[in-house]
């Protein structure tokens, strides 16, 4: 096993990858990036919206004809993969990642400078310090990379190492203003004064973003914010491609699907503590690894509701297909909500706050299978009303599914990605 990481090659499965989106077959036939190699650099995360985006990126580049490389980097000190730390769990949960080759790396130790940033809540500075300590995986220097698609500003130090001595353009997919997320996290954890401020962490973020050749933003609000903050940079608004879930016949399940992060935990607390007590006759089911975060950070709430927390399941399609309604009780968060797009693709009736549709550029009140409820009383009333009105159309023809196909399909994403990437490629 190489000391700095390892390479896992997968067989050529382009003919087996199914991307159910109109227009993608035409892109695949043209193969405009044939003969090119694209390195997708991303955090070694799984079971979350960012991981779904990484899968979409790789599938889109493959549909455009490129050979794809996944470079997964751990954001905490970790032993070499695949043994120890978070690596076994990551590898087990991402076995289907469709890259042609996969590389894994991460920092071995924290160091004093990173530790000082941690205790003061400077997550932006901490992540940059950690990425600077990452050793490149063995073998990756031999790859003839034509384009780097980096995810989150903090992977750019690793992208810079990949570019060293080579003229390789870099696309950066920002996935929200990260400084906002860091400030939210500091509200719930102990930090030694002086606590890092939003402005200082944003400055670090912007400094590294300037090193990218083009920045891709996932929603209209994010695109407007970064265009204002970095007026001299190249910006593109590209809605992400989110893998659709099954449009099933429906059933009795009332579901909330969420990964473990601060905004989702805050939303779940609101749902369990303020909404469901007003609709005790409705039994909800909560899916995703958010149960582990709730157990760790709010054990009392976890114990009070552990019977509805189902955890991560292998067949999420079946859960959506058998749902009577999908809940989107979003009360916190920035950037486009991946779980909202996923729920839209199901075609099921949705009960949601307006915040769930942030950054999407349309009025959700016009969607006939969406009930908007921004306070606990109205959300509970919508819960109590589930099943009283028959669905007007098949879920595959619902308003949300049609909007999903138009804005968030793989075909739309691949075409936009080609338009952003092609002008950067060297002849």
TrEMBL record:
GO terms for molecular function: glycosyltransferase activity. Gene3D superfamilies: Glycogen Phosphorylase B (3.40.50.2000). It comes from the Bacteria. Keywords: Transferase. The keyword Transferase applies. GO terms for biological process: lipopolysaccharide biosynthetic process. The keyword NADP does not apply. PANTHER family: GLYCOSYLTRANSFERASE WBBK-RELATED. This is Glycosyl transferase family 1. It comes from Methylosinus trichosporium (strain ATCC 35070 / NCIMB 11131 / UNIQEM 75 / OB3b).
